[in-house]
Amino acid sequence: GIARGGGGGGGGMAPRIAGDRVLNVAEKPSVAREISRVLSNGHARSREGVSRFNKVWEFPYVVQGRQVTMVFTSVIGHLSNFEFEPGVARWNDVDPKDLFHCRVTKTVANDKVDVANNIKRESRGCQSLILWLDCDREGENIAFEVLRTCREANARMVVLRARFSALSRADADRALNNLVVPNEFESKAVDMRMELDLRLGAAFTRFNTLALQRAGVNLPVDDRGKSVVSYGPCQFPTLGFIVQRKWDIDAHVSEDFWAIKCSHERAGTTAIFEWRRGRLFDHGFAKNLFDMCTRANIATVIDVDGQESKRWPPHPLNTLEMQKRLNRVLRISPEQIMKIAEDLYNDGFISYPRTETDKFPDNFDYDGTLADMAQHAQFGFYANGLINGRFRRPPGGGKDDKAHPPIYPTKLADDAAYAKMRSKNVNMSKVYEFVCRHFLATCSHPAVAMKTHVDIDVAGEAFRATGVMIRERNYLDIYGPGPPDGPRLAPTYDNWGNSTLPTYESGEQFTPVLNFHQGATRAPDYLSEVDLLSLMESHMIGTDATQAQHIEKVVGERGYARKVGDNRLTPTELGEALVLAYDRMGVADMWLPTKRAEMERDVDAAAHNRLNPAEGLRKHLDTMLDAYTRLDRAKNTLTSTVGSFLDGGQAPGGDANAPARGAPAARNAGDTIGNVRNCPGCGGTSKLYSTPGARNIPKFTVQCDVQHCAHRVTLPSCTRRGEVEHESCGQCRGQLCSFRFSEVFLPIGFQHMGRWTGCVFCSRDFAEFARACQNDEPAPRASPVRQAAPAAAARG
Fold it and tell me: Is-catalytic flag, 352?
């Protein structure tokens, strides 16, 4: 039994196979094992390799019409890393600025020497090399690492590249029928990015860490006793999104609004009519409109309109959409989702899970995939329905990375496979079933409903009620909770419910129920992981292969952010302090997404041979060297800002002129809002001051304008606006002040203090509120996985 591959070498795209032994190298041992199994029909012989992790498989095969022995082994990700020359290893002996231009080399990592020796040994007995690395830029870079290592042992090897998306016999055959040459432009683009990340990460990490340690800032330490303040070109913009949202929340000032609520009940069914104006922020105007409606007390039906509405199935599944949908429903992190998806791919159950593509190729084998799914114990009924006439070819979206198709199921899981999945990870079977259900949903017709609008008029004000009656559930039977008559499916990834309206006719009148509703605008929520992934994608921060890792590093490994509430992300004290410090030092573009996005655009240009990688590297290193110079001049701002967060005040050795967090306004700084009263301590004038804080959120104080007078009232940090009124206090004859406080941060029991007018010196209510705010103010906190720094923090 010799398995046979097809003839042809990709239409002249690649050289012909040479010799009778062909070395095949995969990116992971599990991929080598699975491809060997499917190509040999389970008859491949295995033996131990030089590396105990990388076995070697052999089996006969026919490639390009030539009978050969396939020798299949693997690496474990990257073989080589960029490293600095040995002389720059000691942090305290080298200026971090030198890391921008000192020599770097790409060499085999110490822990990969056996892996490299394994493929060298196998190369000596083979005349051709087929590279089975993942079909993305990172995989192309690893392919060239393997190529160079193999040619050290056998310089005359013929080298070809297999491009595949699933560990199935059909995909492996297709790859061998269409062998190509590896893409050197993509590999060099990855080298460009890797060198940039090494130099920038090392230089700015050393700058941060050494500056803060030497200033005596009480840095948190990790579980190895190190206090390293890391900078990453992707991680900092990721953190920036989280911090920016917190600042948006802090800056939010709640605004009251008013709306008219209208409803009507008939025959046991209630219709809710939405006011066409939505809401108004002018109480007087809104109340006048409401009074007009209540006086009229008659609603006239203006129009009843019914039309068909469709709810469309999702596009075929790409990496980002898989992470977002599973995170939203299963509440597992994007990185965990990707680990599970990788395991499913390595076991042959789904196609390659790192893809931007959301449109299947024209020659995709829908029939074969549906035939497999038709045997599924739970979803088989639906796949059979698609096979028997309900199939719709997915139109797809507009994304195509030219490397992999969308994610789809490649193998049916039986009971034994399900048991194995559950033993590995409790969520593994759920991720597999999601991929199956998503694929079946994309091959389905849209849900169809009759949507009815009823428009009414009350005293000239327009209202509308909307009703929905589902006629055809279609894709919702597999993507939602299942067909009404079963089987029921869980969890639900999409749904569309009925909302019934009473029957109305144009021109009829009825008496509505009217209510005057008061509400207030709310601050936005903290970012969820889904929100963060979307921002990273839209701003080109990371790739589909790395975005989840960047989030995990920011939240877990670095301790710059943490999860709160319903899977939301908020910065830790250290995370917010770093972003604020970089902002104050005039290099905000190092935490904003713009600079990294420009790097990614140039990496893409290099991958398409539109930019020389050496020129791109030089351009970005020059730009970041300029940023480093600015940071170095302003390092006192870094130490004082971070110190004020972590130490609760001025950092030792910091800039005495830099405003510490929560510090009162200086006498000669800030804006004077108005005079409040004569100072009872020295006879000077107590004034209401506003000074800028983080991201221009103002800080308010009432204090004497005499230089050394200590008479001062500091307003709570939740203060957002302040004014001096014309009215005076009956007790001290000072001017009353009006303040608005962020309702998000009001202490429990003081929700009525959103807006307050009174005397800050005489009011008992204000004194109690200020004390409650002070008690409610969170203490500086470290990352959950870190302890307080020891007296002698570790260096480098």
Answer: yes
